[in-house]
From TrEMBL:
Enzymatic class: oxidoreductase
NCBIfam families the record matches: PRK07231.1
Protein species of origin: Thauera sedimentorum
EC number: 1.1.1.47
Regions that span the bilayer: none
Similarity comment text for this entry: Belongs to the short-chain dehydrogenases/reductases (SDR) family.
Superkingdom, taxonomy of origin: Bacteria
GO MF terms held by the record: glucose 1-dehydrogenase [NAD(P)+] activity
InterPro entries: NAD(P)-bd_dom_sf, SDR_fam
Keywords (A to Z) from UniProt: Oxidoreductase
Taxonomic lineage from the root: Bacteria, Pseudomonadati, Pseudomonadota, Betaproteobacteria, Rhodocyclales
This protein's name: Glucose 1-dehydrogenase
Pfam families xrefs: adh_short_C2
Amino acid sequence: MNRLTGKVALVTGAARGIGAAIARAFVAEGARVLLTDIDNARGAQTAQALGERAAYRRLDVREPSDWDAAMAALLNDWQRLDVLVNNAGITGFEGGAAAHDPEHATLEDWRAVHRTNLDGVFLGCRAAIRAMRAQGSGSIINLSSRSGQVGVAGAAAYASSKAAVRNHSKTVALYCAEQGLAIRCNSIHPGAILTPMWDALLGDGPEREARMRDFVWDTPLRRFGRPEEVAAVAVLLASDEAAYMTGSELTVDGGLLAGSPASPRG
Ligand code: NDP
């Protein structure tokens, strides 16, 4: 359990879900981790449970000044940044059942999703390159989605923002390589990972189990994934084992994108 010993990481949206699982796995592998989020109470609680190699700080990924302040504090306290995980993301459905299809979505909702999912990743990558340049190496891990690789009829902004994250990750990878920096940038593409993000879609009534079965019907492994199963891939990308990986995309989706809905159902 020492694949990340000596490394310093910052994880966004780390109060719960996939971000919390990544922070937990990084600490278990020996890293020091700054957990960040906009949910201060939960973020502080999650960090405290991880012990002395974890700390919490508020960072709204949409705000350039929050990025500046978080990076300054991190470099002051821990002197370096080795790994940034741009994990914070929203679907746009958090506030209720507003339409997100390409015909009915509002411009405000479209922009709000892009502001968190895309602007947040842009700002994070920019801050990380600037911080990592001093040591000339590092790993940037961007949480895209399987929805960044295919269209989603009812979630236009989410799919668009995640596709842009996938592409921006490659641009960052190429730019850093061009600059002669060993700063790698890769994207992870989860699909159907059971976290609180799904609560708005699944509800919590007696229908929840049936809805869960419906959602994973087309997934070859026929189940939701666990946040820890995404965290394991983030550990690999953060570690020196992945030194020759940059600009790549890794799906963690139970096989969903390996086939096509046109395949006969078994
Ligand atoms: P969750 O909703 O469970 O957790 C996301 C966390 O990010 C929350 O703590 C949330 O805080 C925080 N957050 C939201 N907006 C901001 C912001 N502006 N700045 C900082 N933090 C913010 O999501 P998941 O763990 O499920 O998802 C993590 C990432 O993985 C996301 O990028 C998501 O799109 C991606 N992903 C997830 C999949 C899944 O099936 N779960 C599938 C594909 C991709 P608050 O609760 O206060 O809003």
